[in-house]
Specification:
Elements lengths: L16 E5 L9 E7 L2 E9 L5 E4 L10 E3 L7 E11 L4
Antiparallel strand pairs: 1-6, 2-3, 2-6, 3-4, 4-5
Length: 92
Amino acid sequence: FRVEGDSMVPLIKDKDFLLIDTSAKIIESGKVYAISANNELRVKRIHRQLDGSLVISSDNKSPEYQDQTLNKDQLNSLQIIGRVVNSLMIDL
């Protein structure tokens, strides 16, 4: 799918196309995933914490992109679509 926005710059830029491995549903800490939360599709880096919670972060460290933490009891609101394995800019 095609990305809209700059929250994952410099790794993924606005209008990049992403290749998603939809079989990769188990989170590897520090990897980038396509996720759905509250009916909103996002691409974020996910870090697994020792207490079982997840920190969901953007690579763009601008103040408008704050890390979010999901506690263990909130994890059911998160759907892992798959791990991002490549990004590509194509001019259409």
